[in-house]
Amino acid sequence: MKRMILLAAVAAISHGAIAQKNKVKIETEYGNIVLMLYDNTPLNTNNMVKMANEHFYDSTLFHRCIPQFMIQGGDPDSKQAKPGQSLGNGGLGTTIPAEINDVNYHKRGALGVAREQTPDKSGSACQFYIVAGKTFTDAELDNMSKRTGRNYTPEQREVYKTVGGTPHLDGNYTVFGEVLEGQEIIDKIANEPRDANDRPNKDIRMVSVRVVEEKKNIISSVKGFFKKKS
User: Fold this and answer.
1) Is it the case that residue 21 has pLDDT exceeding 80?
2) Which of 42, 126, 145, 210 counts the highest number of beta carbons within 10 A?
């Protein structure tokens, strides 16, 4: 019996190690957005965790917001931006290498790395976007596949048809996470009245961006179990 419990515990540890995710919470006046960052994009995931831990994003704006498309933020120039000031060119003087994986795609709620026309598709070290998106028909997805040469899995196709997203961005931008909570907040922000540069007429700030504290580590929990039972 002890051996069976031990094997189960080891399996739980292994599963926990694989499934471990970083989570980030963005606080806004509209409510909170909770993001799960992917493990298969370690460079971009670790970068956002670092930036959140340094409180870099606090007071930055969602400076580019387009209904049924996405909201973009993280420009350091936005912290003290004047009304009507064009934003989106601020950065840290470096880029993060692209981590474009076919399994990470631009479904509704996807978290992506903003970038300029970098040949290697490397992205901003601070600016990111979250997909609001819209739904697509099979015909639209077929035409997109012909133009881009990109094929969608049955699961991806179903998501784009029923949930929505921005499939035309697939393969060109790094997707490194997704929304767990607060998609309705993204929709509210995306639908705010905006100017010709898609900057909302009112400042929509990230009040704070923090890494969400994980629940008690599963390995510690298992050790505690054996300590109590021995």
Assistant:
1) no
2) 126
